Amino acid sequence: MSRKKIIISVIGLIIIIIAGYAAMMWFSDDRTYNRELNKARNAVAVQDWQTAKQHYQASRKVRVSIENRTASEQLDYLARADKAIKQQNWESAKSLYQRAIDTNGGIPLLKKAAKTNQRIVNAEQDSGKYKASVSSLEKSLDKKDKDLNDLKKQMSDTNASVQAVQDSANKAVADANAAADKANATADSANKQAQDAQKNNKQDEHKDDQKDDNKDK
Amino acid sequence: MTMQTAIFAGGCFWCMVEPFETLPGIDKVRSGYTGGTVENPSYEQMAAHITGHTEAVKIWFDDDIISYDELVTLYWQLADPTDAMGQFADRGETYRPVIFVKDEAQRQVAESSKQALAASGRFDKPIVTTIEDAKPFYDAEEEHQQFYKKNPLREMMMMMPRKKYQKQYWSDKERN
After folding, report:
1. Largest separation between any pair of C-alpha atoms in chain B
2. Alpha-carbon gap: A119 to the closest alpha carbon of chain B (Å)
3. pLDDT at B139 > cutoff 50
4. Cβ partners under 8 Å of residue A39, min gap 6
5. B99 has which bridge partners?
6. B31: which residues sit within 8 A by CB, 6+ positions away?
7. pLDDT band at A217 (very low <50, low <70, confident <90, very high)
8. Which residues of A touch B (CB under 8 A)?
9. Is the CB of residue B32 less than 8 Å from the CB of residue B57?
């Protein structure tokens, strides 16, 4: 065998080894990618967002695809919506579910889960609004009751006050009448004294006239 | 001991397992798919509404301890019999309410129970739950089995509308 043939054979062998290794690596990557993708899909089916995200990220390390890219985006929204629900932040949860639904090229199973959960949140929110409305009405009625009681109490206080004023006025009138009676009595007495004095004067004058007459006689 | 089976479709199967499984006389409850046209459907096919299956549970029970009639009575409390287009937050025929009967005896029990429910006046809408012959039942993927134990928080969230239904229509019963 010539030297040239040996070199060609060695190069050919090296090429075959490299190609075989590349094929093996590609096959292995493909298997890893599909395995991770399947695990991610299974996790999505049971709405285990965290596990799904881990497997999608693992598949993304092997190969970036539309599925693992959009799924990661949707899973972020869904995980955040779960947190919002725990905090009973319904509006935020609904908005996050909507973003998961609206994600371009989104995974159908994730869209389905988002829609279902959004309906649950809507129902909870409606129920909450109803409860809040009833509670608000009850509070309003309580306040009206309290206002009514306060008004009754005020009226009662006012009546008592009016009565007191009236009593005071009656007393003042009675005192005034008594004072007037007393003044009248005093005036009567003074009149009587004046009359008596006048009478006495007249008698004295009469006596004086008689005395003068007697003197003249 | 006589082991019997019963199949009920009442919306999302995650929520249909625990209420039956925790009763005395129940051997096991499996989540699965039935009533469709494709063999061994997957959850993804189901969710895409392309196979005609409904989500359902298959119950193995000892009828010396618990009767089929008692199971049907419990079923009415779990699935809204006035909603033919789905159950609670899950919409579409995949979630329609169906009692799948395996023989004439089960059919008679289910029919008379349905008539009694309609006559009770408990609901102001017609009872639309269908009673159909049992068809092949395919177990769902393992991750869906006994879901209430695997992901209680998620199951609790999915149960929220069902609890409201129970409170609204079955408050005279003691189920929680």
Report:
1. 42
2. 5
3. yes
4. A51, A55
5. B8, B131
6. B13, B14, B16, B17, B55, B56, B57, B139, B140, B144, B145, B147
7. very low
8. 41-43, 45-48, 85, 108-109, 112, 116-117, 119-120, 123-124, 127
9. yes
Q: Are B21 and B63 in contact (CB under 8 A)?
A: no
Give residue A148's pLDDT.
72
Compute the residue count for chain A. Answer: 217
Q: Cα–Cα distance between B11 and B162 in angstroms, integer?
A: 10
pLDDT at A206: 63
The predicted-structure confidence for A49-72, as pLDDT tens digits, reads as follows 999 999 999 999 999 999 999 999
Q: What is the dihedral sign for C-alpha B32, B35, B36, B39?
A: positive
CB B10 within 8 A of CB B75: yes
Q: What is the pTM (predicted TM-score) of this model?
A: 0.70
For range A27-53, the mean pLDDT: 91
Residue B75 tokens read as 């079923």
Q: Do A43 and A74 form a contact (C-beta atoms < 8 A)?
A: no
Q: A147 exposed, middle or buried (CB, 10 Å; 0-12, 13-18, 19+)? A: exposed
- ipTM, two decimals: 0.81
Q: Is B12 a catalytic residue?
A: yes
* Among candidates A46, A112, A127 on the partner chain, residue whose Cβ is nearest the Cβ of B144: A46
Testing the interface with A: which of B80, B143, B167 to mutate, by most A Cβ within 10 A? B143
